[in-house]
Specification:
Number of helices: 9
CATH class: Alpha Beta
CATH architecture: 3-Layer(aba) Sandwich
Strand order of the largest sheet: 2-3-1-4-5
Distance between the termini: 19 Å
Number of strands: 5
Shape: globular
Bound molecules: cytidine-5'-monophosphate
Structural class: alpha/beta
Largest sheet: 5 strands, parallel
Length: 212
C-alpha cells in the first residue's frame, strides 16, 4: 500500500506520516528533507540559492546520510529548501529516488508537497493535511522554543505565510491537493485525534465505506 501525505509547513503531515508508517509497518520518506539537504549544502558552500545549475548538481550528488539531520530542521534551512525546490533541475534530480521509494515492494508512506500529485499519482491513499496558518505558526513556535531556538511568534507566522505562498504559486509541482486526495484539517485536532482521523481515511475503502 502506498500512502501519500501532503500539506503546508507545520500542518502535522510529517508526524502523521511517521505514525501511519509505524502503524502499517511501512517505510517512510520525509521528502522535504531532500530539498532541505540541497538548500543546506547550497548555503554552506556559499552559493546563491537561485544558482539553478549549481543547485541541480548538488541535488544530483545529494547523500543525506552525510548530513547531520539536526542541521536540516531550522526555519532558515526550510526557507532555503523552498527556494531551491522551485528549480526544475533540482526536482528532476530528486524524482527517481522518490518514485523508487514509493514503488518498493509492500509500499511506503511519503510526505511532502507533491507526493500525491507527481511522485506517486497512483497511490492507494492520498491525504492532504491542512491547518490554519495561526495554528501552524503556534505549533512551530512551541517546537522552536523546545529546541532552544526561540523566535518571535510574528516572525514565525510571517515565514509560514511566505513559504505557503512560494510553495503554492511556483510553476513546477506546486503545493495543491491531488483531485483524489482526502482533506484532513487538523486546526482543532491534537495529534492523537488527527491520527485517528487519518486511520479512518485509510481504512474507509477497505471497510467498504466512502472516505469521510
Ligand atoms: O516539509 P518541509 O517543511 O521539510 O519542506 C521544506 C520545503 O521543501 C518546502 O517548503 C517545499 O518548498 C519543499 N518541498 C517540496 N516538495 C516536497 C517536499 C518539500 O517542494 N515534496
Amino acid at each position: 500500500m502506498i500512502i501519500t501525505v501532503d500539506g503546508p509547513a507545520a500542518s502535522g503531515k510529517g508526524t502523521l506520516a511517521k505514525k501511519l508508517a509505524a502503524h502499517y509497518g511501512l517505510p517512510h520518506l520525509d521528502t522535504g528533507l531532500l530539498y532541505r539537504g540541497v538548500g543546506y549544502l547550497m548555503m554552506q558552500s556559499g552559493h546563491a540559492l537561485d544558482d539553478a545549475a549549481m543547485a541541480a548538481r548538488v541535488a544530483q550528488e545529494l547523500d543525506l546520510f552525510k548530513i547531520d539531520q539536526e542541521h536540516l530542521r531550522s526555519d532558515e534551512v526550510g526557507e532555503a529548501a523552498s527556494k531551491v525546490a522551485a528549480i526544475p533541475g533540482v526536482r528532476a534530480a530528486l524524482l527517481k529516488l522518490q518514485q523508487d521509494f514509493a514503488r518498493q515492494p509492500g509500499g511506503a508512506v511519503l510526505d511532502g508537497r507533491d507526493t500525491g500529485t507527481v511522485i506517486a499519482p497512483d497511490a492507494d491513499v492520498k491525504l492532504f493535511v491542512t491547518a490554519s496558518p495561526e495554528v501552524r505558526a503556534k505549533r512551530r513556535h512551541i517546537e522552536l522554543a523546545a529546541r532552544r531556538t526561540p523566535v518571535e511568534y510574528c516572525a514565525v507566522i510571517s515565514d509560514i505565510k511566505k513559504r505557503d505562498e512560494r510553495d503554492s504559486e511556483r510553476s513546477i509541482a506546486p503545493l495543491k491537493p491531488a483531485p483524489d486526495a482526502v482533506l484532513l484539517d487538523t486546526t482543532d485536532l491534537d495529534i492523537e485525534a488527527a491520527f485517528r482521523a487519518a486511520i479512518e481515511i485509510v481504512e474507509a475503502p477497505r471497510a467498504g465505506r466512502t472516505r469521510p
